[in-house]
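Supplementary Note 2. Why include the ligand at all?

Several targets in our set were suspected to adopt different conformations when bound, so apo predictions alone were not considered sufficient. For every target with a known small-molecule partner we therefore ran a joint prediction. The input for adenosine-5'-diphosphate is given below.
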Amino acid sequence: MELKLLSRAQLVEGSRADVAAARERARLRRLRRLLALLAVVAAWLWWRTITQAPVLPRWVHFGWLGTFGPALLIVVLLGLVLAVPLVGTGRSPHVLYRPGDTGVTLDDVKGSPVLVEEVVKTLNLFLAYRSFREQMGGTPRRAVLFEGPPGTGKTHMAKAMAGEAGVPFLFVSSSAFQSMYYGQTNRRIRAFFRALRRAARAEGGAIGFIEEIDAIGSTRAGMGGRGEGISGVVNELLIQLQSFDSPTAGVRLAGAAIEALNRWLPPGLQLRRRHSSPANVLVIGATNRAADLDPALLRPGRFDRSIYFDLPSRAGRREIIDYYLDRKSHDPGLDDPVRRDALADLTFGYSPVMIEHLLDEALVWALRRGGDQMTWEDLNRAKMTEEIGLPQPVEYTPAERRAIATHEAGHAAVAWLVGKGRRLEVLSIVKRGPALGLLAHTETEERFTRTHSELRALIQIAMGGMAAEEELLGDTTSGVGGDLASATKMAAQMVGSFGMAGSLVSFDAVSLGREANLVAKVLGSDDGRAAVESILEEAKGDARRMVAEHLHIVQALRDALISNDELVGSQITDAIEGAVTAGVVGMP
Ligand code: ADP
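The joint prediction is reproduced in token form.
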């Protein structure tokens, strides 16, 4: 088993050798014990044979079993029925993966090289624990916290670490520790850590993974909020995290025997007590709510190292897309790097598991239309299904259909006019979930900040639907509700968070309890409300002017929507450019 990890991280020579040597020692110890047992049995058999005695001693006979056997059996069975459930509740609830079972290595962790690098460092310390402790005098890292939104690959990474390290991996979900019996949660935690220590001593190392650790490690749990008394489960966790150096039961027993013997022996002949080496355990706790964890858990020597799992960047998404697409049946057109880059753009904000799921959903769409490979269109449909929901076959009245198409065309026209850096993806009047129609538009480049003018443009786009309704229908509909809500939210952020509306006072700094969000705080102040109102009014005026000046674009989009229901990508820009070049002015 040589040494890819070491070359990756240029770490101490022979790090894996520590684990391998410990495993070899454990194997030899097991063999020695077995040999000793066999030797005793063989000696017994040999002795009985040469003395020509029967193999079993005379006092072993089963005569009485025939008489009392059935009654005894019933008593034993009854005892078992009562005892077994209780024994079960105190058992460790983990699932054990042996090396190779997980089928995942660090090569399967895509899209986050920095994380892999960080994890490799931890892994090398874990694998080289003996050299680190004995030669360098360091204290090995015992516990690491994986923190980040769901689906960002925390469990996946832990499994890969176990796969790479070649040690047992004990997976447990925090909820499995919880029990209705008083004290059982603590008992299960103890049992889990006992299993970890045992596995580590037998195999040279073990990795324990506790999913959603906040469920047992949050501050509330420590105060007995989960009904486990004052000592609490957090205390148990803290104690267990320090337990890897404690001697095994066998060593303790042998120590007691030697101590008793030493009392009789003169000083020169005193026997030396055996010491067990610490169990090489790495505990990984995963959570998406690290802030809720009890601070005592985060002190040095406990979960003192925290690794943050973020959503993947564009390059990361591209890598994940390549990884999964190569495993799923797809149209050769999707092998084009340009298409794959476009897919990476479209999946901005997606976690790795969402990307995997999107590709599966595209395969389902392929099946639905009778194909056996996903195409670009299947991917687009899958994306809409994932983000907005399945299309619902409802019949709009002709007037309603026209109104919805006008509304969406208004959004699209303003988006095209103001959002030079925006890509128009989907324009639709098919009902999905609560949305009667939609315009999906994204940035052309991945960005993490927005300028003042970009935010204003987004509010103008939101107002485009209402402006088109007023301009072309002479009336407005209830369909503007969602747009006004999102525009108000953005305007409130500009006023209360980003200092973009005349005042630099941050409403974010005001704490009014957990419930009060930014919009409530801003709208709760007269000045804030007036500033929001003015931003919205101004954006609405701008949108109205744009729609009025480019009525032919709005009409062309509306007509295309009425006849096609849904326009995707270039179909939208084709309709707009067609209207621009022809200078067509359709029927209002
Ligand atoms: P978390 O524990 O953070 O909620 P998981 O580790 O359970 O997320 O991730 C769910 C699935 O997503 C994994 O089983 C794996 O298939 C996929 N996945 C997550 N991260 C990655 C990654 N970096 N590369 C490839 N697949 C990933």
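Strands lie at 95-97, 143-147, 169-173, 206-211, 281-287, 305-308, 422-428, 438-443, 566-568. The longest strand covers residues 281-287. Comparable summaries for the other entries are listed in the accompanying table.
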